[in-house]
Amino acid sequence: MRLIFAGTPEAAVPSLEALAASDHEIVRVVTRPPAPLGRKRVLTPSPVDARAEALGLPVLRADRLRAPETAELTALDADLAVIVAYGALVAEPLLSAPRLGWVNLHFSLLPRWRGAAPVQRALIAGDTETGVDVFQLEAGLDTGPVLASEAVAIGALETAGHLLTRLAGIGAGVLARTVDALAAGTVTPEPQVGEPTAAPKLTLADGRLTWAEPADRVLARIRGCTPEPGAWTTAGGRRLKVLAAAPARDASALAAGAVTATPNGVLVGCGGGALELVMVQPEGRGAMPADAWLRGAGTGVLLG
Known about the structure:
By secondary structure, the chain is an alpha/beta fold. It contains seven helices and 15 strands. It has helices at residues 13-20, 47-54, 67-74, 118-124, 160-184, 215-224, 290-297, and strands at residues 2-7, 25-31, 35-37, 42-44, 59-61, 80-84, 102-106, 129-136, 146-153, 231-235, 238-247, 259-262, 265-269, 274-282, 288-289. The protein has a seven-stranded mixed beta sheet with strand order 5-2-1-6-7-8-9. Strands 10, 11, 12, 13, 14 and 15 form a six-stranded antiparallel beta sheet that branches. Strands 3-4 form a two-stranded antiparallel ribbon. A hairpin with a 2-residue loop joins strand 12 (259-262) and strand 13 (265-269).
């Protein structure tokens, strides 16, 4: 089949590679334009853009699919369009332009966690299972019928970054098999069943830690916000990023936000229980082990 592939971040690259290695022809890769990255704000192509160029695939760079982009993609006479975290909506008439429409690889088991941040929201909520779905794209937000699905257990200390990388690899295989099945006409769409939950994009405020919450809820937020937007708190009125934490190996009773060094590590009290701080990053400084930070911060530290 003739395919259009739309995607932008690193999580979409395994799917692009899987389809590029298949018997199908990718007639256009659609991705968002280069964005300024790093302290010097250097314009940098998206991961999908860079990989498509390396594979010798034609690329359309667009932040939105307006009339000119719609005309260009419609003229390709594609059989199917595939989207994996492109970052912009697909609307009519482009939605109906390919013979088989558009399919979307989504990193959750729909209808749970519809939206831009399904992996992060699943971890913050304390889910122990997620998965990947390939569904038929339609006008509603992640509402289309499911074509293929695979459940995935979430590791006890897995962060959003690690889980997304794992799901991207699993999802690429599921997507490639689904495209083959669509070509063969052997797919049976199934309507989504269950109560929908929303997964809006996280903001910096979502990473703010509330130490009055139980330790397991605080740890879930740290995992869900790592690496983006980052989990953080304050110490002495300055921001402190929490890059890694773990369940406390010590039963020490601490007030919420109180920090102490023990033989089992640096502990911080929560509303119920405590957590071990493993890696932190003080404002204006680099990442460091929590014990090194605490030696510099001194005694009586209270996180807010």
